[in-house]
Design goal:
Blueprint: H1 4-14, H2 24-46, H3 52-56, H4 59-82, H5 96-112, H6 127-147, H7 156-178, H8 184-213
């Protein structure tokens, strides 16, 4: 019968070295750098909208893009921080102020500058926006899922919700740079609607997705 000291020695001898994770802010910065590279790639593929400079001079448009971008950045930081089991869940509130500014700004724009859908315009005309959404959001979501895969062993749902909000915010801030929404109702659908859908899906299926990519 093996003694306790011998058992400990045998376990230590067979143990494989474990590489420590980088600090959460460093990993969040790496993911945001990847998001920046996606922006450069999208510019190379689709080009910026011709009226972008004029649109950025409009406070509502600039606030919309800035608030969505801030929401995505802060949500990414929150996701990486709370992925560690010893960190406070209060970090999940980090993107909330920017998210509220984003929601209020879109709501105000829809109420004060409503533009009716033109007779020949319908949601089917937005296929280019859907394609840009997939091209931008899918790589960001997959990369974030892999980088946060270790959280599957702890409490993945809050991390998934923050991660979904990060992808939604970054994607929503990039789409207006390439695609011109001609109606306020479409702005509401594509910005807040897609953000809500991504965040809800992350909360509902986050545990399963993290388990799928979790280290064995």
């Amino acid at each position: 019968m093996i003694t306790t000291p011998d058992l400990i020695e045998s376990l230590v001898a067979r143990a494989e070295p474990v590489r420590r994770l980088r600090p959460p802010l460093a990993r969040a910065a790496a993911w945001l750098l990847f998001a920046g590279l996606m922006l450069v790639l999208m510019v190379a593929i689709k080009g910026l909208r011709p009226d972008l400079e004029l649109s950025l001079r409009q406070p509502g448009f600039a606030i919309d893009v800035g608030a969505a971008l801030a929401t995505g950045i802060l949500a990414a930081v929150a996701a990486f921080v709370v992925s560690l089991p010893d960190r406070s869940r209060l970090w999940l509130w980090l993107p909330v102020p920017a998210l509220l500014v984003w929601i209020v700004n879109i709501g105000h724009s829809c109420l004060t500058a409503w533009v009716d859908l033109q007779p020949g315009m319908h949601l089917g005309d937005e296929t280019g926006c859907v394609a840009a959404l997939v091209m931008t959001g899918a790589p960001l979501a997959l990369t974030l899922l892999i980088m946060l895969r270790h959280t599957a062993l702890f409490d993945p749902t809050p991390v998934a919700v923050a991660g979904g909000l990060a992808v939604a915010g970054i994607t929503a801030s990039l789409l207006p740079l390439f695609h011109n929404h001609d109606a306020s109702v479409l702005i509401l659908v594509w910005n807040l609607g897609i953000a809500a859908l991504l965040t809800a899906a992350a909360g509902a299926f986050g545990r399963r997705m993290f388990t799928w990519v979790a280290p064995r």
